[in-house]
Structures are given as structure tokens and as C-alpha cells.
Amino acid sequence: MLFKDVLGHNHLVSHLQVSAEQGRVPHAQLFVGPSGVGVLPVALEYAAKLLSMNDLDNQNAVIERVRQLQHPDLHFVFPVATTAEVKKHPVSDLFLDSWRSFVAENPYGSLFEWYQHIGIENKQGRIGVDEAQDMVKKLSLKAHQGGYKVMIVWMAEKMNTECANKILKLVEEPPADSVLILIAENDEQIIGTIRSRCQKLNFPLLPQEAIATGLQNKFDLETATAQALAKRAEGDFSKAVHLHLHDGDNVTFERWFLYWVRTAFKAKGNKMAINDLLAWSEEVAASGRETQKQFLAFCTEFFRDAMLINYGAQEIVYYIPESPDFDLHKFAPFIHEGNIQEIIANISSALYHIERNGNPKIIFSDLAISLTRLIHKKAS
């Protein structure tokens, strides 16, 4: 049965099924949503539907080949970078074995997890102009089994300008029976000339029930445990899996966060604390850029939860600090309408500059020092 492995999104799945069966298949489509809500699994099942229509006598075999990412008329593009094995001109085809194992292990995996999987977490992956040449060539060829050819571009916002410009004609005038599916978390980062020529489909966050069911199927969890994790996951299945596996990232991130906040408190009456903040910024800056981005996202969530507690919205706060000597409720009164917007703006600015390869020592030093002023700011 098609779409059996997809969590939630029943209305989107139904729409895609019906449109495929009726032959209403746009040549360029844009699927938008966080990786953890299952955009890629839906795209894969949609591709299975389209390609199985090419060979009605062997549909089950076609579907199985798609799910194994081995179908000759299914092509993939995703962000890559140079590695010890791939020293120049990195393109997706050179990483296909890694891609298949990654998707098999976790089709809801994030970009950061993909970078970790191929060992480039300290680099910025991209979809470059070399990739564009391969894309044009692949979709120009005749389908092996007749009918549709499908190309899925995962994290399409990572296309650089040269690549985007080179595939523009491919989007405007696609070869016959070719389907280009762009998957993006932030479609605003895709150039407008491509974005405007794609039929867009937005993917909402997953309902708690779907996440709980997915966790039970994947890990054989008890219902109560799965439901508790689903609540904390905030609509993101990948986050729920992360929480279940007790990944060490949050422990490190919490340690960094608590040291930053506590030192910022001390800095008001202790000038020497600035040296501690600078040492802190150097430690964070020594990690990879993707780790830094993940940490900034963690900080945003932590400050958000503190503000929610401060204003009595405890029921929608699910994070429980690992540190036994930190009380989120005691910290909450310091985060309020008088400083939350500036705090989040400072974190967003840091993220912006990290993504653009700014000097991380300078970025985190500035962020660290800015909190010493904001954390003591009074509520309006």
C-alpha cells in the first residue's frame, strides 16, 4: 500500500494520490516544511506512486525499488561538500550510498544529521553549479521504463546562485514527463524566479497522535511514554526520536547555556566575568558551524520556555533541564516582554552571521556580552 510509512498529512497524501491518478501532475513542485514533519517521506511515496504508474504489471516491484532509492528513473540532489574521499567538485552522485543509508535509518533526519552522517558537520554543504549540469542531463534522458522521471532536490534552499540560474530553464521548460520536486525548510531562500514557477505545498507540524504512533512502531514504546515524548517534540518526529535516544547534544547545549546565563548575571558587578564570557565564546566557536546553529536554536527554545512559564503558560512547556541545580521556574521571571524580543533578535542576528561564515569568536563574544545587559533589564 502506498503512503503507508508516512506519519500524518492525510489531506496532503490524498491530494497527491488523486492528482497522480487523474494525471494532474505539475512538472515543478515545491514541498515546504521542517525535515522532522516528514516532507521527504511524502515526496518518496509520491515518487513511488508516479513511477509505479509507468509499469502497472509490476507495481509492487517498482514501489520497492523506490523505497530502496534504487529506481533508475528516480534521481536525488542534496547538499554536499568536499571530504577526505571527495576532494573536489562534490556532487550528489558521489554520496549516493551514504544517502541511501541515511534515509533508510531516518527519513525524518535533519540537515545537521545528514552533515554528521557524511562527516562534514564543520562545513557548509551546498548544491553547486556542477550539480546543475547533472540535473539537466538526467532529466533530459529518456525514462528507462517509459513514463515519468522524478528528481527530488532535498534542502533546495542550499542551491547557490550559479546552480539556481542554471536550472531555471529546466524549471521553465521541463523535458516531457519529468517531475522536479524541490524540498525546502525555508523557501524564501530560493530565488524568486524558481519559486514562482513551482506549485507549492506547505507541510504543517505533525499532530501528537501521529508522532506517538510513529515512536511506538519504531521503538516499541509504551503508550504513555510515547505520548509524553510526542508532547515535547512540538510537531517534529525527528525531535521526538532525538529525545528518546537521549542524544548528548542537549546535555552539551544546556551546559553551554547555563554557563552563559550564570556568567552574564555575575558580570553586572564583576568585571572579571567578562573574561569568563570570552572564554565561553571561544569554546562554542571551536565547535562546527552546524553545531553552533543547533545551539542557537536550543537557546531560542530555552528563552521561549522561560517566558511562557513567566506568563503562566506552563502547560505548553515540555523541556525539563538535565542539570539538577537549575530551576527553570526561578529563571523565568528574568525573561519578560521587556527583553525577550531583543534577546531573540540578538540570537537571530548571530545565526544569520554564522550561516554566512562570519567569525564565530566575534559573533559569540558579541552575543555573550549583549546578554549581560539584557538579562538585568526590567519588565515594562
Rg on CA atoms, Å: 23 Å
Write down the overall geometry: globular
CATH homologous superfamily of the largest domain? P-loop containing nucleotide triphosphate hydrolases
Sheet with the most strands?
Answer: 5 strands, parallel
Structural class: alpha/beta
- Poorly predicted tracts of residues: none
* Number of separate domains: 3
The CATH architecture term of the largest domain is 3-Layer(aba) Sandwich
Strand order of the largest sheet: 2-3-4-1-5
Helical segment count: 18
Percentage of residues assigned to helices: 40-55%
Strand content: 5-15%
CATH topology of the largest domain: Rossmann fold
How far is it from the N-terminal to the C-terminal residue, by CA?
57 Å
User: What is the tally of beta strands?
Assistant: 5
Question: What labels would you give this structure?
Answer:
3 domains, Zinc Finger, Delta Prime, domain 3, alpha/beta, single chain, 5 strands, Rossmann fold, 18 helices, 380 residues
Could you walk me through the main structural features you see in this protein, from its secondary elements to its overall organization?
This protein is of the alpha/beta class. It folds into three domains: 10-204, P-loop containing nucleotide triphosphate hydrolases (Rossmann fold), CATH 3.40.50.300; 206-240; 248-374, Up-down Bundle (Zinc Finger, Delta Prime, domain 3), CATH 1.20.272. Helices cover 53% and strands 7% of the residues. It has helices at residues 10-21, 39-52, 59-67, 96-105, 111-117, 129-140, 161-166, 168-172, 192-195, 208-219, 223-233, 237-245, 249-267, 273-285, 289-310, 328-331, 340-355, 360-374, and strands at 28-32, 74-77, 149-154, 178-184, 199-202. A five-stranded parallel β-sheet has the order 2-3-4-1-5, sandwiched between helices. It is globular. The model has no long low-confidence stretch (mean pLDDT 91).
